[in-house]
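Hi, here's the filled form for the chain we discussed.

Project: internal
Contact: R.S.
Residues: 119
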Amino acid sequence: MKQDHMSIDEYKKLCAAGKPSKMHNKKVTIDGITFDSLAESRRYDELKLMLHSGEIRGFGCQPSFTLYAGIRYRPDFLVCGKNGRIWLEDVKGYATDIFRLKEKQFRAKYPGFELRILK
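And the returned structure, exactly as it came back:
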């Protein structure tokens, strides 16, 4: 029996096929992790070197924070410095209006976290 409709997932895949990214970034995969841009993947490599040299204690990728009205914000990295201080990093080539809004909401809701925007 032939199916005359497609699932939502099939439709999304079809729509996404061949579609360029919003910022014309190229996805890069390193260590099984797919990054949204070359700049983000380079920062990941830098953080790995910093970890191995003892400059930082550790780092993680894309921690998730809930903002107002259930909106999620996922900065690129959470970093723990040598002294135990924790900060967040977001690598941006260009700050969109949506990002600016999320950044403002994040800073208001989580004032105890330092958020570093890297270009």
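Let me know if anything looks off before we file it.
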